[in-house]
Each structure stands twice: as C-alpha cells, then as structure tokens.
Amino acid sequence: MNLTSNALLSSRPRAAGPAALAILYPKVGNVLRVPLRRTRTGGAHGCAQHPERQFIVWFNRMSAARPGFPMQIKSILLITGEPLCPSCHRALARFLSQYQLAGKLRLRSAAPAPCRCGDNCACGTATVSAAVLLDEVLQEGLGETPRRGAQSLPPATGPYRQVSGHHIHQSGAYAARGASAQNNPNHRAALAIAQNGPGFTPAQHDRASAVQRGTNRAAHGHDVDLRAGGVRVRTSGTGTLAAAPSQGFEDLKAYYALLAAGRSPAEALRLVNLSAQQLAAAGAVPVRVPSR
C-alpha cells in the first residue's frame, strides 16, 4: 500500500510565520510531504536546528527503518520561510550524494537574514521568497483554499501526551506484552487524535476501536463479521499460520479504523502516514498482533 503524507498536523496563523517542509517525489506513487519544525536561522543552537539538519536526521531514520527507501526517491524539494544556511546546504548535499540524490535536491527559501550561529556557520544567500509558496503547498495537500487562522485538521491531532485520545496506530501492537502505556516506550510520543469532542465523538471512537478489534481477531484466525461506520471486516475458515506483526498490517488497520470513525479517505491516509513517520523516526516497530 503506497501511503502518502500531505499536510502538517495543523495550520499555523500567518503571523507566526511558515514552517519548513520537505517534499519527496518518488519514482512510483504519490509525493511524501515531511513537516519540519519552524526554526529561525541562527540562534543559540546554531546549525543543529536548521531544517536541512532536521531533514538529514529524518532521512537517516527512514533509511534505517526501510532500507530500500532512498532508492525510491526521484527528487526532493525543501521549502522554508527562513533563509537557508550555505553550510547546512553543503552538508545536506554531501549527505544526499551517497544516495545519488544531491543533484536532485531543489531549494526554496525566504530572503537573507543576519546570521547568529557563530563562527562555524555561514548563513546568508537565499533564492526566492517562500512564505506564500509554502502556505500554498501546505494547503494543496488538503484541497483547500488558505484561510486566515483556519485549522487544517479538526479535531486536534498530536502526541498522545498532549492530546490523549485515540492512537492512530494501535499502541498495543508496539508493546511486547501487557498494558501498552507501560510496555510501549513510544506510547506517549505516538500520534493520537483527540476524542470526546465534536470532531471525534465517543461513538466515532467506538467504531474505530471495533474495526481494530475485528481486524486483530481476523488475523488470529477467528470468524469475524462486523460493520462499523461503513467499514466491514469479514473472515471465516481456519488458518494454519500464527498472526505475524508487520507495519503494513498496522497501516491498513489504522486506515480502516479511521474510515469507520468518519474520516475521509484522504484524511485517513494523511493521518496514517504522519503517524508512520513518527514511528519510523522513533524506531518503533510492531512486535505483536493484539488479541483485541
């Protein structure tokens, strides 16, 4: 299943300035959009927090989680509302050259600003203003016209420790045994969708959970026939193989659970991929198929 990420977790008020975004164009399939933290060029932390360095860290983690990932990339576009740092640009080009991708990197940035990184950095020259372009790209993934102060992703979505609610990927699959809150190291950092509000009601959460349980039971060889929110899970017969955990299985389960909860197919794909990116960055892999 080719999953693509198309947006940040939420839109930002224009007064706060644009975030950075990396867009990866694969050889086959849809584009992958990677949100990067909003950082200013310079500052006490120097180059370590520049988008180029953030992207290197993310790409390294993706390559470790999915060894064939670099070979799937055709080109990369990095957009940032802050000036690009020539030092970081060179580091990124060197990093990508090991995958024969250095010549396939395109950059868009805002106008130059004074450098405060210290003696080891040479921030400065940029190409074109990126603020408007970045806003358009972020909204393009949602199929919406930008609106001042609009929220792109109701209800609130973020790390579980901030929003609680429903884990996009079932946390129990990443815990070797027992309660996921205690045995899944990524439980609190994993992406979750806030519940018990108008955007994700208890009834919607129940439907998502029902699809998760039904899919798990089906993987374990039980007869299942359930409908929840327009999604049907149906299996019968006896199997001979034990349920095997895999990220692909968890992606599919998460996707159909979100459909059952009333999310659109595009939004469900986006959420699953944002969550999958967080899992890959954290080095979290499924270790079991939960019994429920």
- The largest sheet has its strands arranged as 2-1-3-4
Mean pLDDT: 74
Q: What does the overall shape look like? A: elongated
Structural class: alpha+beta
What pattern of helices and strands is seen along the backbone?
Answer: EEHEHEHEHEHEHEEHH
Per DSSP E runs of 2 or more residues, the count of β-strands stands at 9
How far apart the termini lie comes to 24 Å
User: β content, as a range?
Assistant: 5-15%
Helical element count?
8
Biggest β-sheet description:
4 strands, mixed
Number of domains: 2
- What fraction, in percent, of the residue positions are helical? 25-40%
Oligomerization category of the chains in this entry: single chain
Q: Unreliable runs, pLDDT <50, ≥5 residues?
A: 1-18, 111-116, 119-154
Quick synopsis:
The chain folds into 2 domains: 14-140, no CATH class; 157-282, no CATH class. The chain is built from 8 helices and 9 strands. It has helices at residues 51-65, 86-97, 131-140, 160-163, 180-183, 202-219, 247-260, 265-282, and strands at residues 20-26, 32-36, 73-79, 105-108, 157-159, 166-167, 191-193, 224-228, 231-235.
Outline the fold blueprint.
Elements: E1 20-26, E2 32-36, H1 51-65, E3 73-79, H2 86-97, E4 105-108, H3 131-140, E5 157-159, H4 160-163, E6 166-167, H5 180-183, E7 191-193, H6 202-219, E8 224-228, E9 231-235, H7 247-260, H8 265-282
Parallel strand pairs: 3-4
Antiparallel strand pairs: 1-2, 1-3, 5-7, 6-7, 8-9
